[in-house]
Amino acid sequence: MRPYLSVIATLALGASFPLLAADYTFKYAHSQTDDAPRSESMRFFKDTLEERSDGRIAVELYFNGTLGKEEDVLQQVQMGLIQGYRGGLFAQANPAYLIYAMPFLFETPEEAIEVMQSELGQGIDADARASQLHIPVTGVAGGMRQLTNNVRAVNEVADLRGMKIRTPPLAPTLRAFEALGASPQQVPYTETYMALRTGVVDGQENPPSNIADMKFNEAQEYLTLLNWQIHPDPFFISAQWYDQLPEELQALVDDVAVETMTRSNELWLASEANYLETLGESMEINELSDASRQSFVEAVVPVWEFFVERGDFSREQLDAVLAQTGHGEGQE
């Protein structure tokens, strides 16, 4: 077939590539796999934004850390070299994001999502502008974090005393387990399975999806539904790139980002329920009573106070969260 006939045939069948160059390119990266709920939601973002912008914005997706480590990617977003990112390091965008990671502040992911979508949450997003980031919406990065161990079922604060618990290097997590009498241990995530298997650590904490994906349940006997912490998932967008868009495209990016995060939250939380069922097949699962949970809350209130005093978020912000969730009564 002659070259020009080949082109005509391609056009007749419908080309899978844009015929005209887009006015703007949105290059996005994160470290999770192609199959992760975050990746699935970002494919929705790409398809929806390209369609609704009539091809004026082209979206390029890079998963699996192909554009670098999270810290490198976030810096490139701040510099405008990459246009979008979702993942960890949220405190670098705005220390106030740590309020969402306070121990035992929320009982359910839905409570956290409600705060994230409130005026308080929108204010935290807006203040990330000081870090050269536009954040139109924040969601949850998986479900509530739970505890596994090989020593005993954890029902009371005293049950945790002396346990060696592997934790990520996140300040609220370290201080929480110290306040609960455990011994937090720094073990690389990829080495945690072997550390559990060999007894280097007694337990670890993660959402059910991570526990199952990393097969920690194969090396652990007890799973306690602590529902003790959740991590935020801000949608980081380069402020430099966003500000150059016409107002109608800025509004479109914001709208599609909000829809994407709603989809992401739904995907995360639905998958967590399925993972819990799977984990129950190999581990003994127990849940805290209301009275026991309150004793955990009382033990970690000093952790909340530490971050208020350090200035990561204000007393007013913490009180607003407690009032919105209905957990403020009885706290000093």
UniProtKB/TrEMBL annotation:
It comes from the Bacteria. This is TRAP transporter substrate-binding protein. The lineage of its organism: Bacteria, Pseudomonadati, Pseudomonadota, Gammaproteobacteria, Oceanospirillales.
